[in-house]
Amino acid sequence: MPTTPPAPHAAATPVSPSITPQTVGAGLHASTGIAAAIDGIVREIAAHSARLTGERPPLPGLKESYEALMARAAAVRGRPLLYPFLGSGVGRGPLVELADGSVKWDMVCGIGVHFFGHSDPDLCGAALKAGLDDTVKHGNLVSNFEAYELGEVLLTHAKKQSRLKHAYAATSGAMANENALKVCMQKHSPAQRVLAFRDCFMGRSLTMLAVGDSHAGREGLPISTHVDYMPFWDAQAASAMGGKAKFIDAAVAKLTEYTDRYPNQHACFIFELVQGEGGFNVGDRDFFKALMDVCRAKRVAIWDDEIQTFGRLPRMFAYEHFDLGEYVDVFCVGKMTQACMTLFTEEYNPKAGLLSGTFTGEGCSFRVGRRIVERLAAGEYYGENGSFNRHHALFREQVAGLMARHPAWFPAVPAVGDLAGGLGGMMRFTPFGGEKSKIMAACKACFEEGVILFYCGHGPHHMRLLPPLPAMTEDQWPRVFACIERGLSKAAA
Questions:
Q1: Cα(273)–Cα(251) distance, rounded to whole angstroms?
Q2: pTM higher than 0.85 for the full model?
Q3: Domains and CATH numbers, the chain
Q4: Residues 15-23: contacts with CB within 8 Å, 24+ apart?
Q5: Residues 431, 488: contact at Cβ < 8 Å?
Q6: Is the dihedral of CA 125, 131, 133, 136 positive or negative?
Q7: Which helix (H) or strand (E) holds 332?
Q8: In the chain, what percentage of residues exceed pLDDT 70?
């Protein structure tokens, strides 16, 4: 039966001065019935998730349907998937179930996105609550408050040891980097050159591929941005040159050469304090500080790219770990925060209209991202005795055991000082001399044996782990490495 619409000019229900008015939306989100329903759904997810207790092979009878799904995915993409991975939609911390019923230890987590693992009850609850929102996407013209709430939480912690004051949301890490580059170039117009480290990776937009130091990713594309590449910190090279001071002096001389050759033409220097795709290369504070001092003197913006490092190191921010926050003008974060953000100081607050776009992200991403940052800040993860440092030590202990049992798998690599490296939740090890074809074969063999890894580096190459450390227990490392050992054995054979 049709309902009678309200009169177009019906008087509003009077509100008592002693009662705070409430929007319909606030009432919806405060509904005890909805809260109980969400709690019930989360409990149901947890009950199903609890059935995953370790790696297992595909279930009988699902092979044919899984291969059909893989074929459909390949037809959409135009080529087969690199890994035969299609998730079932459920996991349990570091464990994830595939649509063929197999269960894997997920040690790369979407290249660092799922830092709290799979089917986390708290994050599932936040995502379910976001399902109440009136729209899926939020934008720059009109938006609910969730995007700004995530920005507030990030800035609360970023401001503790930096001058960062504002945050702007973006739909991807590459777009956050594009925004950062625009901010720097507008501030230092007409400067159009960029300084970056060798082996850096910035994303896969046309401009970011031009900045990133990898020909393979931009083959056949025009180079849209002038980039001058600097050497990254290299302890092996420093030792060969006669010490750290000489390496730093040579890097400062190289930077000064660039700024003298192109005076007032560099808009920014992009700092990855720990390189990600480039090989999980860990920097050095004295090295960075010397270069940042030159940037300050030459009025070159200092841009800290923490899209992969944020949250994983012994401190929440990499600039905190290296005590360099006072230098940072522009900062990018993404991956584990679900929605990506560009942060900047008041000095680099751009003119109106420079940063825009139809979408900033989804309410789900903003709500889940906020909870992730809140939990990182509240947990016992950071510091010398924090759990991330303990996990990293256990990782190195497991690699040392592999090396002792199978020395033939780990020949010396002159360019790599330690065959087990990285920092905090960024972990890499280097079997088979770092040869790319063997490393990729080893990743695929490990996948077959029940653990998901990936590779990094530009030669030598490494096996890379970005594990969900908050979701892991210390006694799980031997189980993970039992799968890795079986995979390396297959690859070695």
A1: 15
A2: yes
A3: 55-119+381-493 (3.90.1150.10), 137-378 (3.40.640.10)
A4: none
A5: yes
A6: positive
A7: strand 330-333
A8: 96
